[in-house]
Amino acid sequence: MTLGSRPDGEFGLAPSRVLVAGDWHGSKDWALSVIRRVPQLLAGEPERLILHLGDFGIWPDTQGRQYLNAVGAALEQVNAQLWFIDGNHEDFPQLAQLAVDRDVADGRAGVRPGICYLPRGHRWQWHDRRWLACGGGVSLDKAARTEGQDWWPQEELTSEQETAIIAGGHADVMVCHDCPAGVGHTFSRPPSWWAAADLERNDAHRRRLQRIVDAVQPAHLLHGHLHRAYRRTCDFGYGPVQVTGLAADGALRNFAVLDVVSMAWQRRRSLPPFGARRRADR
Description:
- This protein is α/β, with parallel strands linked by helices and 282 residues long.
- It has helices at residues 28-35, 38-41, 61-77, 92-98, 159-167, 196-216, and strands at 17-21, 48-52, 80-84, 109-112, 115-117, 123-126, 129-134, 173-176, 220-223, 230-235, 240-245, 255-259, 264-265.
- Helix content is 23%, strand content 21%.
- The protein is built from six helices and 13 strands.
- Helix 1 runs parallel beside helix 3 and helix 5 runs parallel beside helix 6.
- Strands 4-5-3-2-1-12-13 form a seven-stranded mixed sheet. Strands 6-7-8-9-11-10 form a six-stranded mixed sheet, with no helix packed on it.
- The N and C termini lie far apart (38 Å).
């Protein structure tokens, strides 16, 4: 039995709790260290699932293949699946090739056994809540990257994707990589070598994501990208929205267990509390 929705409108075994993770950036050691915690963190779950918020690690050449193979093997060892949205640091042409067979019961795309990509605009249902995947982001450090090697123009949500996602209607929960413009953050002065055009692209992308949020009106929004862990209640004009961001690889606040029945985060004594601020690498 699969997790999530089915084409006929019936739903498979929805999880009670999932492990939500922020940016891994293709770091094999960090990814494996998180996956190995799954049996403890999701004890009692008949179907174990990691929901990943982008910059998972679709990367070119041998290093990228070794990473996916290692993650797939580790997931098999702990009897878990991983679903991910795209971030801004992904090899998008490779992702498109891997995701050709988009037939994992409900529109998810299997890229390896146990690893599924959630395309932009993908929707599913858990416990009477409608979920929406909305990947994409802007690389503010594009000036130091090379197109086709470690930067790809498909990183941004397009106007066509914005229109299509909005046309899909209301969602109760949005799973994003970027953070919408309506969520205020204070950052230190950007490095001098970041291009002004990329800063402008970033602001425009956040506004685009905010337009999607304003249209579909989720009550919960989860994102990565900013590399900071926090929880905040925001008001975008239609009611309170619980916004949660997660840190990047190397930090314990990179991952947390979410009860998807109550939408409450599970507290762990080993984790510092949400809300501590740190400099963001975007």
